[in-house]
Design goal:
6-stranded mixed sheet
Amino acid sequence: MTRSHARFLSRRTLLTTGGALGAGTLLAACGGSDDSDEPSGEGGSAPAGGAFSFTDDRGETIELDGVPERVVAFVGVAAALHDYGVETAAVFGPTTLPDGQPDSQAGSLDVAGLTVLGNAWGEFNVEEYAGLEPQLLVSTSYDGSTLWYVPEESADEILALAPSAALINSPSQDRPDLTLPDVIARHTELAEALGADLGSTGVTEATARFEAAAEDLRRAAADNPGIRVLACSAAADLFYVSTPSSYADLQWFQQLGVELIEPDAVDDGGFFEPLSWENADKYAADVLLLDARTVALQPDALTDKPTWTRLPAVTGEQITGWNSEPIFSHAACAPLIETLAEAIRTARKVS
């Protein structure tokens, strides 16, 4: 098994073994509205003649006679494209909750009007996908080759129906220095290739808000030094401590001055150290950056775990939400950065 495949399996394990409770207020600031990143100018283009060309993060170039109109995307990518004014024909991945409300990964998409090909891991309606006559399939990737949420058992059939594009969303052996602005830039490039107007008021205002939020986080970390932050995710049987070097956003937060705790026994997947709940207090933290996805347990579901209730950041009520699978647009990420900045600015040393 390659290291990249092990990382993918580890990521899948956390995804499919987490809880099923809603994120509630922890993720209220992590949705999308308006934001973007300046493109690097290398990934894609939509020339005046109408042709489409985009080189994805596998190094594969998709060239079409015209800009594709029937794009099908992983829901997080679709949400990012939506923030830049590009709509998709259908989505796959966590889109709606059991009560019909939007999953956090749907961002500001109007889920009531979406064609959803699969809402859970392993679900993908190939027949319905074929009926859409798709022109482009897009998803994120953790290993540089596997398309996230495209089922392995039907991948060959799915990928035979339309060209596909992969956007890497986390640091890897090939790109260890990948950060959040890098990933956003690639989503922005794709949006531009698909016809987004990056000069629109909504996009430029979102970009400005993102940049201001980044500076705010930098100042907060500098003004309140020594605040130790633990990025983590809670499941029924395990407490996962995330390693910043495997997440584009966490690695960037470190660069901005946030003192994120580095776990010392990361598993073979490379994303986190799994701890039994008896050992959940292994790392002393002042602030918990808690995974607020709907697959992860939230504070109100953890009150029966004594180690959790004794954590200094919990007793000190210093918990803030973290979408460990963010929507990679300026609009979606700016509120999350603002929330983290406020949490660090107002935090007390409790560990």
